[in-house]
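As described in the Methods, two query proteins were run sequentially through the folding procedure within a single session, without resetting any intermediate state between them. The first query and its resulting structure tokens are shown here.
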Amino acid sequence: MGFDNFAKQRATIDILGAQEYNDDSDFDGSWGIYDEPFLKRTTEELTKIDNPFFATIFTLSSHHPYEIPKKYESTFEKGTLPIHKSIRYADHSLKIFFEQASTLPWFKNTLFVITADHTATSDSPYYQNRQGMYSIPLLFLCQQIICKEKIIRLVSKSIYSHRLWVI
């Protein structure tokens, strides 16, 4: 998707992509590396970086064609849309990532921001138009409690209304 070239033009950074990952056994056949092994490797790489650091992780298992590793084919419920099984796999991968990361020294001082670039197919009519396509969640996570309440409000007044969810 051109992320490597874009990132290299913007800053001095290190990139861990499919080429640097260098293990085709974890390749999804379309976009790159499945979420679970990629996030595991990313956690290992983040541990090598001096603190403080900023890192961006872009996962892809919840992107069309919604492929998940063969070993999980019968693990996750299919759902009503092809994306549902891959979303369950992506959630599982994030759970494993946070379990692993929570044991590392940098975890306690890290703010995780989880969001999407757009929604995909949905059973809900709300997400089946341009406005709904860009109504995405924004989640902040950290070990230290910043906010104990869930806040739902718009964070953009553009024609693409975004909502902020702080849990």
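Immediately afterward, the second query was submitted; its sequence and tokens are:
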Amino acid sequence: MMIPARIASLLREPLLHFLLAGGLVFAIMQGRPADVGDRRIVVDAAVVGGIIEHHVRAFRRVPTAAELDDLIRNHVRTEIYYREALALGLDRDDDAVKKRLRNKMLAIAAARAEAQVPRDADLQALLDRDPARYARPARYWLEQRFVGDDTPASRAAAAATLAALNRGAAPALAAPALPLPARLAAAPADELAMQFGDNFAAALAGLPTGRWAGPVASGFGLHLVRIDRREAPPPSRLADVRQRLENDWRRAAIARAEAEDLKALMARYDVVIEPVR
């Protein structure tokens, strides 16, 4: 383990050597011999280095001598309680303990997968299998009119307003008007989803161009929409979506590693599921 210079300097302090000795004396004072198997608790420089690094990560500073003394004593207490709890079998039939240990086993498999580096060929194959997933969003040039809340009365009003708009009329917006733009140019579908909601953005793909249509539901209510232009972007290249591809590839690699580990572990067990009567 690499220890930063400030931590390494602290580990060389004579005071720390006193604290280490104090930690060992504390363990001995619990009434257990300090040199017999699991009854031996050793707080050496590596352990103290880990304690200090954990404190630095949490608080962005090296602990004071007094804080370090308390941290070492707490480490010894934790070790003692942990070992005594295991000796008493308190870990058995405890769902919380089982789940935590299960997650640690999964983390071992995940760590191996996360250390792998995908090749460009792997990422390209992932992109080729599902190009729609990595496609950039379509862009829209459109006009919208807010009709009102999504109610039967509003839907009836929307039908009349739609007919008027397609005849060339320009009815006023519903009152009270919302602070929404009446016209949008080159608006990506994902930005429209953030502004109006996912359902609104998804519905645009099925609307005709050049005439009013709807009503289209949004997070605000009902709208009538006229799409003047819809532009589909060119297919994504590997360089455009590399990070997304790497994230998906690594998630799949972790899932495979966990499945392979579980299969290997299950082969060591004889699982019997008895019928419940």
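DSSP finds ten helices and four strands in the chain. We note this only descriptively and draw no conclusion about the first query from it.
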